Amino acid sequence: MSFAQLIGDWHALAVLFVAGVIPNQIWRMLGLWFGGGIDEGSELLVWVRAVATAILAGVIAQIVVEPPGALASVPDLLRYGAVAAGLVVFLLTRRSIFAGVVTGEVFMLAGTWWLG
Amino acid sequence: MALPPLDSPQWQSPWRAFIWGLRSITQTILTVVLFVTYLGIGALAHDTNFSLAWALASTLFVWAGPAQIILITTLGSGATIIQSAIAVTVSAIRLFPMVVSVLPLMRTPTTKRRELFFAAHLTAVTLWVECHRFLPQVPRERRIAFVHGLGFGLVSVCLTANTIGYFLAANLTQTLGAAILLLTPLSFLFSTARNSREVADVVALVLGVLLYPLAAKMNSGLDILVSGVVAGTIAYGVHWWREVRA
User: Fold this and answer.
1) Domain check: are B163 and B208 in the same one?
2) Which one of A53, A74, A97 makes the best mutation probe of the B interface by having the most chain B beta carbons within 10 Å?
3) Which residue of A has its CA nearest to B53?
């Protein structure tokens, strides 16, 4: 792999800036700008935090329901089953992220292997 | 490793606080999860014909796993720049309340807005979760330095992971590639669930997951925004109702 290939073309980097960097930094800078006047325990903050959590939950659901790249090769039910199995173990192990993630992964890999 | 007590002389130097922040990345499973998630992003970037420099720049300047995955996936599947930008902008809305809720933890009455610039840039789900966990153990006037150290450490881990993932990609089978991509929803789901202490947080998480497929049926391009605002507002309603009754 040459040095030029590792850098890539400038057009792609410009696209990254327009479609990736600006859309993220806008919200962070708005948060920095407006966050100053908002009290830590205010009702508005309880609401925005709930919305933030729900939007992240939506992104989680989106990746599982409309999977990107190689994940699309895994059957729907196997993906949902993997998340459900992980969730059950996560709850049974008193919220161990590690146990939940490993269970979900093992479920998916075992299912893929079993389905051949 | 335990952080020194709040009144320890260890906290007198901001540089020391930076180092404590940096060392704190070894105290959380989320660092491992981030590493593997960014391994996946590096691999995904390679498979979608982006350069390594592009992948590293996206980690450094975007610094939000879901947004990076959405950006790579949409651009890779032939979406226009505008369509990708809209999808990423919508997914990034959650950064706004995260920044709004995390910065007050670091602010003192004399803190200037520009001093919080890097903390705002570094804010993403992992840092948000870890700030709520670590910052109560850090003296308020040293929290910005601590967060800079924590963020610097996490970014370094992710840049390393991107590079390894990019070079591994050529050798990764489809099943292993799928396994790495599945890490992202699993890790985000469980880390958010673990941080959900109040009923409103749990309701927002559960409803957010359940309402997304319904909102997606509308196919408005703003699905995540619709399900997020509806689920979040219902969760806030539950919180408000419980407060009123209490």
Assistant:
1) no
2) A53
3) A7
| Structure token pair of residue B113 | 């807005």
- Domain with B221, as residue range(s), is 198-246
User: For testing the chain B interface, which of A9, A56, A96, A106 should be mutated: the one with the most B CBs within 10 Å?
Assistant: A56
What's the domain count of chain B? 2
A13-53: pLDDT as tens digits: 999 999 999 999 999 999 998 866 666 567 877 887 788 78
Among B147, B93, B68, B9, smallest CA distance to A49 is for B93
Residue of A nearest to B74 (CA): A68
Enter the tokens of residue B174.
């489809």
Interchain CB distance below 8 Å, A69 and B48 = yes
Residues B147 and B233 in one domain: no
Q: Which residue of B has its CA nearest to A5?
A: B51
Global ipTM: 0.82
B68-127 tens-digit pLDDT: 987 887 787 677 888 788 878 877 877 888 898 889 899 888 999 899 999 999 999 889
Q: How many domains, chain A?
A: 3
Whole-Å CA distances, A99 to A53, A102, B35, B184, B195? 22, 5, 17, 15, 16
Identify whether B9 is part of a domain.
no
Of B179, B195, B211, the last residue of a domain is B195
All residues at 6 or more sequence positions from A99 whose CB lies less than 8 Å from its CB, including other chains: A89, A90, A93
Domain that holds residue A56: 38-68
